[in-house]
Amino acid sequence: MSISELIATVSERLTPTERRVAQAVLDEPTLLAFGTVSNLADKVGTSRPSIVRFATKLGFQGYADLQKHVRQGMSRDLSRPSQRIRNQGDPGASTQGALAEAIDRVFEALQGEQLAQLAAPIISAKNVWILTGETSRAGAHALLSGLTMVRPNVALIEEHASGRDLSSAGPGDAAIVLDFARYRRHSVGAAQMLAEAGVAIVAITDGPLSPLASLTENWCALSIPAIGPFDSSVPAVAAAELIVAHVATQLHDQAQARIDRTEALWNATDTFVK
């Protein structure tokens, strides 16, 4: 289990100091992997015993035990693309395994009641706004394409036009925000603004310490593997397609009528090559 997954399992029991330790570890994993207890304590501004208590709360016997685990589990997805491409070898079977595991995690995060809860605001909202970072952009486009087929008033917000496009957002609307570390300032800032305006936030992110998870109780965490030098877009697309399928099922008659009208327009305008 990765360090982020371990933190997620105990997040509700972390003290404010331990949350600062957790955030420092997630921001700079090499500090935990290769630094001393004193290094991490100085970074966070706390004591060495606090660091040791953090390690034991994660289930380890002490700091050395936690450090050993992190060193063994460190992989390319903890580094930036500029560094990954320098270290990149032949991805081979590891890529296939990483993607398969990530897809399994999508289905674990979005099934049954979890999926229904995540999709509920999208189904009932007057307007649906989609905000995204870079890695999640493919998922955002999948949401836009699918949701506009089954319900009206869905918009993907581009950074340069967000002030204008979101000026009418308010209570009764929903915003789907997709972003993973390294979080984009625009997606987080716009989501905060929408939350303050009374918009229901649906966050698709990567863990409980994500700045998006603090804005809403309605969020899910995906695992984002590194494929070559870049973070994979596949989990975000898979999550988007599951959400669209659920919304379409719940809006059955409305969705069917909208799809039929769209098909009729496509035929009338000779949209596709015969």
Number of strands: 7
Tell me the count of domains: 2
- Rg is 21 Å
Beta-strand content: 5-15%
Helix proportion range? 55-70%
CATH C-level class of the largest domain is Alpha Beta
Secondary-structure element series:
HHHHHHHHHEHEHEHEEEEHH
Largest sheet, spatial ordering of strands: 2-1-3-4-5
The CATH homologous superfamily of the largest domain corresponds to: Glucose-6-phosphate isomerase like protein, domain 1
CATH topology of the largest domain: Rossmann fold
Strand pairing plus helix content: what structural class?
alpha/beta
CATH architecture designation of the largest domain: 3-Layer(aba) Sandwich
Shape: elongated
Low-confidence stretches: none
| Largest sheet properties | 5 strands, parallel
Q: Report mean pLDDT, rounded to a whole number.
A: 88
Q: What's the total helix number?
A: 14
N-to-C CA distance = 51 Å
